[in-house]
């Protein structure tokens, strides 16, 4: 069992996990809310370390990341457990599992890097489940990946502690964070969390210069209110920057834990979210259409062409020198 970092002894004698904003106080032989960090023999242990699931190469656009190495493949994986309790999670089965409830073979950090290289990937993505809860495993992989010339990506709910962020940011090249709503009541009810820590972390990540993109799943009746989306898009434009790519994406009720409570978002709701984002001043809004191109903000020339073939995106770049091929302005795409 792998010894965890990110904890200390609290005043009441319990051990407090300092990895995410829940700051669980855990008693002997019990686990934290994520179910994969447990006190064993007086120490906090990471039960998910090395137990990677759903490893595969995929287009980086699938994460989604649209302004980071478009057209390349990334080696994606996750582990069981999650620090959110979302009923509508894309990976409900694994996110609700404790490590000991799922039979997953051990994959060393070095093997993950080898797998990525063999598959011709240029990056590794901790993306199939919330990476915060397996931060020790992710950190070992990120160090090895950086030394091997690969880039490191997280796809996260943004609920990590500042301690966790300070540990990962030096190794992180790009991150996509789910900002699901601006309403604290929504975060409490649907995610079992709070919105303010997510907003604080978004500001912190942006200030530290890591490539950042934001995704908002549009859920009818829950997160499609124009007034809320105006606040959300306004937050991105004002507190982060108008150049941050924003992905309002459709919600698929068939994978929901409670489909009756979560009707599908529709094309009109997505188009409306896109308009709200652009009206808020966001320069790059990608609202899940079949053709989601990036164009130069100055002259309108196409920089990246993206097409979704059976839901699988492919990208063609025209900004090979890092500049618009027409007006020569700096491209927003990062490598
Ligand atoms: S990672 Fe978060 S949810 Fe899991 S034990 Fe630590 S504080 Fe609790």
Fold and architecture overview:
The chain has three domains: 2-46, no CATH class; 53-297, TIM Barrel (Alpha-Beta Barrel); 298-335, no CATH class. The protein has a seven-stranded mixed beta sheet with strand order 7-8-9-10-11-12-13. Helix 2 packs across helix 3. Helices cover 24% and strands 22% of the residues. The protein contains eight helices and 16 strands. Strand 5 and strand 6 form a beta hairpin. It is of the alpha/beta class. The protein is globular and about 65 Å long. It binds iron/sulfur cluster. Iron/sulfur cluster binds at residues 17, 19-20, 22-24, 32-34, 37, 83, 133. Iron/sulfur cluster binds next to loops.
What structural category characterises the helix and strand content?
Answer: alpha/beta
Instruction: Name every ligand kind in the structure.
Output: iron/sulfur cluster
Strand order of the largest sheet: 7-8-9-10-11-12-13
Overall geometric form: globular
Give the low-confidence spans. none
Count, helices: 8
Strand tally, please?
16
- Which superfamily, in CATH terms, is the homologous superfamily of the largest domain? Aldolase class I
Mean pLDDT: 90
Per CATH, the class of the largest domain reads Alpha Beta
Taken as a percent bin, the fraction of beta residues is 15-25%
Q: In the residues, how many domains can be counted?
A: 3
Please state the CA-atom Rg, rounded to the nearest Å: 20 Å
CATH topology title of the largest domain: TIM Barrel
CATH architecture of the largest domain: Alpha-Beta Barrel
N/C terminus separation: 37 Å
- The portion of residues assigned to helices is 10-25%
What pattern of helices and strands is seen along the backbone?
EEEEEEEEHHEHEHEHHEHEHEEE
Q: Report the biggest beta sheet as strand number plus sense, adding barrel if it closes.
A: 7 strands, mixed
